[in-house]
Amino acid sequence: MAVRITDDETSKQERKVQISRQKMDVLFNLSEMEVETGGIVVDEEVARSTPCHGYKEDETELVWSPGIVGALNEAEKVKYCQLRIDWKPIPEGLKRRWKALREAGVKFPKRKSL
User: Is residue 44 assigned to a domain?
Assistant: First the structure.
């Protein structure tokens, strides 16, 4: 089923994302050296009605849902990934970035699989 989105709807969603990004400057809590997760819901219906997708590495998970900008936190995974999570092989570039961040002392949220 194809969904057609008007320019006006797109502009509204872009404004939501811009406002949310202003509230959340970075994905790192620099004082704690921790990765912050939590998405910005731009289309609740799409987020609830489509499968999530993500990557796992050791005790780290990054999960996304169509309709949400950014990686999901644990509560969002429970809410939006009820259909399923399609796990994909982690790309080498992402693996290298995760390793570099860990070596720099960044803490990732621990995995709590559904």
Answer: yes
**Which domain does 99 fall in, by range?**
7-103
Examine residue 94 and state whether it is found in any structural domain, yes or no: yes
> What mean pLDDT value characterizes the chain?
76
| Residues 6+ away with beta carbon under 8 Å from 36 | 24, 26, 27, 28, 29
Report if residue 35 sits inside a domain.
Answer: yes
- The pTM (predicted TM-score) of the whole model is 0.58
pLDDT tens digits, residue range 32-85?
556 566 888 999 999 999 999 998 877 778 899 999 988 898 899 999 999 999
